[in-house]
Amino acid sequence: MTRTWFITGTSSGFGRHLTEQLLARGDRVAATARRPEALDDLAARHGDRLWRARLDVTDTSALREVVDRAFAGLGRIDVVVSNAGYGLFGAAEELTDEQIDAQIATNLTASIQLVRATVPHLRGQGGGRYIQIASIGGQVAFPAMSLYHATKWGIEGFWESAAAELAPFGIGVTVVEPGVSRTNFGGTGAVLGAPLPEYADGPSGQLRAVLSGELPPLPAPGDPAKIADAIIASADQIEAPFRLTLGSDAYAMATAALRDRLQALEAGRALAHSTDADDTVPATGLAGH
User: Fold this and answer.
1) pTM above 0.85?
2) Which residue of 1, 24, 230, 283 is 20 to 30 Å from 210, comparing CA positions?
3) In sequence order, what are the residues at sequence separation of 6 or more whose Cβ sits closer than 8 angstroms to the Cβ of residue 157?
4) Quick check: helix, strand or coil at residue 32?
5) Which InterPro entries does this one have (predicted)?
6) Is 251 a catalytic residue?
7) Which DSSP symbol is given to 219?
8) In angstroms, how far is CA 134 from the centroid of its own chain?
9) Which of 86, 130, 148, 199 is catalytic?
10) Distance between CA 189 and CA 202 in Å, rounded?
């Protein structure tokens, strides 16, 4: 079935792969990017099935205008993909106020504003699908990536709530959690804070050495083309899978983190119950069985 997609951040990475594959299979794509000219080759090949707009997702008024224009021009958009984002690396103390604000504005606030801009259209047309490109970094965390993790954990929490709000309108939600993939995320797509000597021998300094090529790169098992294919396939499912964990590393890291978290929670069960008021009937759940 031919669909129409709206995707942010399409000039590179997952956004580019998604756009290429969707056009190749005959779908229409409303592709937004800071540099839409990066898609000139696809426009020449696919003609009016590729609708393009220049967009900085942190400009909320421009975001709303582009969304409205896309729905008006294309008539119906079946799938919205929030993909634009980047990684900010360095210890929290090494980051500037401007870098912190920009990371939150791009990775978290813009994703939320895209929902607010598109949902009235999706609701009005009787439903649709929303796909959030998140990260396994929304389930696990590593030193020297604190602000990146803050945005990814934040968008996970947002969707835990918002997905239930949208379900009655026929809007399905999928949060995609890729592991380390062979994109430009850790290369030209990365932003680093200014190094402080106090952190040089710690995780921040080591990560800088990896990103600069002084140390071997981290293993990157994820194939972005295969990840894009899995994302597209998820939209073909009748029921939207809420989470899509992609990559063997992502699966292993999430499994270990969740097991450790559950073990720590169970260890504190008696303490948790001890702080109830005396007349409380304890809530039951998986831990109580």
Assistant:
1) yes
2) 230
3) none
4) strand
5) NAD(P)-bd_dom_sf (IPR036291), SDR_fam (IPR002347), SDR_oxidoreductase (IPR051911)
6) no
7) P
8) 2
9) 148
10) 23
